[in-house]
Amino acid sequence: MEKAVVLYPGFIVSHFVPMMRLAGVLIQHGYAVSVALIDPAVNLDDAFAAAVARAAASMPSVTFHMIPLVESPLTPGAQFILNYLDIIARHNERFHDFLLRSSSTRGVDAVVVDSISVEAFAVTKRLGIPGYVLFTSNAAALAAFVQLPSVHAQARTSLKFKDLRDDAPLDFFGIPPMPASHLFGDIFDHPESDICKATVASLHGISEADGILVNTFESLDAPAVAALGDPRCLPGRVMPPVYCVGPFVGAAQTSKQQQQHECLSWLDGQPDHSVVFLCFGSAGHNHSEEQVKEIAVGLENSGHRFLWVVRAPFSDDPGTINAGLPNGFLERTSGRGLVVNQWVPQADVLRHTATGVFVTHCGWNSVLEGVTAGVPMLCWPLYAEQKLNKLRMVGEMGIAAAEMVASQQGLVEAAEVERKVRLAMESEEGRELRSRVAAHKKAAAVAWDDGRSSRAAFLRFLSDVESRRQPRPARSGEGK
Question: Are 3-143+148-246+447-467 and 255-442 equal in CATH topology?
């Protein structure tokens, strides 16, 4: 009897990519996998459509089903999360119809949604299908997120919002205190806003899942994993099973794809561990033109080789990239630097022997790619849980140097860029970082071996799915 899982990854690249890695592992274990996608036109980000196209082309065993778009697409800006949650809710009926058709034909054993799409559990519960979350960040972020609704409620009751707006520490069970601004500062700045209420409801919904798969491995996240298994993490409620099944990281490109990208050929000509790689995420974060110039001057003055992915606001045309950089910068750094403003195969860049340091926005997918490649990091957190990730990367994990520090004007100045690059590339501290991240790389490499933590966790997940399996509808001709 065929086993089947439906994945519902939402429409953010950083959530979609790990979900596709999960799809590959499910197929290896004998499951038929369908991916339900709201029409990619919902997201105006070209990077998402490109990621979907790459996955569809490289995973012929996976069935991709497009859910027709309801009304208007996602609009960028400050209302992003509210808009996102509303779109998921508005597509629930069409998602319901798709699951109903799937259940009536070959059956559906489980649905796995991304952590922002838990509104879809209204559909799975109605149909009696087990619903799981793939949490694409780490165990510490999960511990904070599931506790945040109760912390928020306590703050409302005790009228502590002013203190939290002033960045008083948030206290969570099992993880170090952190400033409120490090996690959804808006819900403490504007506690009665629609964004706040929707965000808190969404976070509450994560713990309503039948189980939570986390994109991490136990040795990297041990204190937080232990906290998630403690009843004190979620007092008065029952935490669903947590399965640490990572690392799910970007897949290596084929030889043909590698040859098509100039940056890998350029890296082939650089000495081992000599290149500073700067990339700020699949979402294509745009630094201001002033910030871009400060980075350029810092890199030039450092004297080190660099590969820099610039998503500048002034143009998407590679032919005009020079317009936003200091006069003569590309000419002066020719040979030791390469600047691109398009998608690059980040996982392959990090695995290349020439890459020595990774300047990252601390998105968890990027952190895992750095860890699995054994590359030490410099932190430049921008949004979401990235500041929490930074605290742990610099602290308990010991895989990154301290954060790039901005001036009072909000700019990370050229001198700071130069200082941090030299620290990572030239100092004893930089050598210690490389040693520590190498140890985590070894642990990541064996996490999916027989009997190791991630494989064992994934097998527990499959056992859970099997135990909840419902009788299949009879097909025409069966049983005769």
Answer: yes
- Per-residue confidence (pLDDT) for residue 339, from 0 to 100: 94
Q: Which CATH class is domain 255-442?
A: alpha beta
Half-sphere exposure of 21 (CA within 13 A, CB side): 22
The tokens describing 276, both together, are: 């500073």
Of the candidates 137, 25, 145, the residue with the CA atom closest to the CA atom of residue 457: 25
CB neighbours of residue 192 within 10 Å = 8
The alpha carbon of residue 245 and the mean position of all alpha carbons in its chain are separated, in whole angstroms, by 14
Angle at 422 between CA 419 and CA 428, to 5 degrees: 115
| Residue-range domain boundaries for the chain | 3-143+148-246+447-467, 255-442
Residue 231 buriedness (CB in 10 A; 0-12 / 13-18 / 19+): exposed
Length of the chain: 480
Distance (Å, whole) CA 364 – CA 390:
10
What letters, b where the CB count within 10 A reaches 16 and e where it falls short, cover 280-318?
bbbbbeebeeebbbbbbbbbbebebbbbbbbbbeeeeee
* Vertex 234: Cα angle to 231 and 238 (nearest 5): 70
* Residues in contact with 409: Cβ distance below 8 Å, sequence separation at least 6, in sequence order: none
| CB proximity list for 356: less than 8 A, separation 6 or greater | 272, 273, 274, 275, 276, 375, 424, 425
* pLDDT tens for each residue of 6-34: 999 998 889 999 999 999 999 999 999 99
CATH number of 3-143+148-246+447-467: 3.40.50.2000
Using alpha carbons, select from 477, 465, 458, 464 the residue that is nearest to residue 107.
Answer: 465
- In this structure, of 186-195, 276-285, 390-399, the range with the lowest mean pLDDT score is 186-195
Structure tokens given for 438: 């190498």
Span 250-266, pLDDT tens digits = 764 444 444 558 899 99
Closest CA to 363 of 340, 380, 376, 342: 380
Whole-number Cα distances in Å, 424 to 46, 219, 387, 401, 429: 33, 24, 20, 7, 7
Q: What is the pLDDT of residue 188?
A: 67
Identify the three-state secondary structure at position 64: strand
| Residues 69 and 38 sit within 8 Å (Cβ to Cβ) | yes
Rounded (10°) angle between helices 13-28 and 364-373: 60
131-135 and 211-214 strand pairing: parallel
